[in-house]
Design a protein that fits this description.
2 strands
């Protein structure tokens, strides 16, 4: 009788261990992820001068664009252009400055440095997946700049527009931010992979940022483009980087249009991510560090 009870007890313990072990593994992974994120966060906190200069630069850029558009409105003599008023334009470009922090990725620079310095070889064998390292480092850097620069500039933009954000709008905005960041990360990761084959990739990144600025609505609200051009742009994920999230906050885009833009972005992300994953699995075989 005892042997049967003991056997049953032992079997029960084994079953419990079988359930607990995967949970322990997941907790260990979370601890590793947190450690990478925390290291990035601490590193960003050391660059207080960079944070201050970034704030000054972004506000100065917004003010410069506002000055240009003030001149444009004054010379036109109209109260609105393409349905947009001057106060709206003021708010729009302050929000562009904020969005450049909310949706941001310098993963290509990190990859280029890792490849040049030969540290990518060791990064590839760490417990935390290399792509996950890049995501956590990127988020750690963004977090500090969003808190100290992005949110204050965002509030200024909303105050200029006299807009109150509802919980539904806020949730939609967060969803757009997530999709915009995923798309931009994948794009910049693709450019970062080019550092495996080329010495410099600044030209590629410059072209990418220029295209995103023009088609994403950072340089010019998309309302000013001809209708035919707008229709083409809205078939791409570019508006999700600037125009769609900003328009959502300002209430100049319907929920349906915002949802359609999110669907279009998602439909781009899925095959784009699959392609980049395939290319990365091939490219990493060709990775050689500077040390050999």
């Amino acid at each position: 009788m005892c042997s049967q009870n003991c056997l049953s007890h032992t079997t029960g313990e084994k079953q419990i261990r079988k359930w607990i072990e995967p949970m322990r593994t997941q907790f260990r992974k979370l601890e590793e992820y947190y450690a990478v994120f925390l290291a990035s966060l601490k590193s960003s906190m050391h660059y207080k001068t960079d944070i201050a200069l970034s704030l000054i630069f972004r506000i100065s850029t917004a003010l410069l664009l506002i000055f240009v558009w003030t001149v444009i409105f004054a010379s036109s003599g109209a109260n609105s252009l393409n349905g947009l008023t001057l106060p709206f334009v003021y708010a729009y470009f302050f929000l562009v400055a904020a969005m450049s922090l909310f949706i941001s990725s310098e993963v290509h620079i990190t990859m280029q440095d890792d490849i040049r310095e030969g540290t990518i070889a060791s990064s590839l064998v760490r417990p935390v997946n290399y792509i996950t390292q890049l995501v956590l480092n990127s988020f750690g850097d963004m977090f500090i700049f969003i808190i100290f620069i992005g949110i204050p500039i965002l509030i200024i933009g909303l105050l200029l527009a006299h807009v109150s954000v509802s919980p539904t709008t806020a949730l939609l905005f967060v969803g757009e931010i997530i999709l915009g960041n995923i798309f931009l990360f994948i794009l910049m990761f693709l450019i970062g992979m080019a550092a495996i084959y080329f010495t410099h990739i600044w030209g590629l990144s410059w072209v990418a940022y220029a295209v995103i600025g023009l088609l994403g609505g950072a340089v010019l609200p998309l309302n000013f483009y001809p209708s035919a051009v707008q229709n083409i742009i809205f078939l791409t994920p570019m508006p999700m980087v600037f125009y769609t999230p900003i328009s959502t906050l300002l209430g100049t885009i319907s929920m349906q249009s915002a949802a359609n833009s999110m669907i279009v972005t998602l439909l781009w992300i899925i095959p784009f991510a699959a392609l980049v994953s395939y290319l990365w699995n091939r490219a990493r075989k060709n990775i050689t560090s500077a040390g050999g």
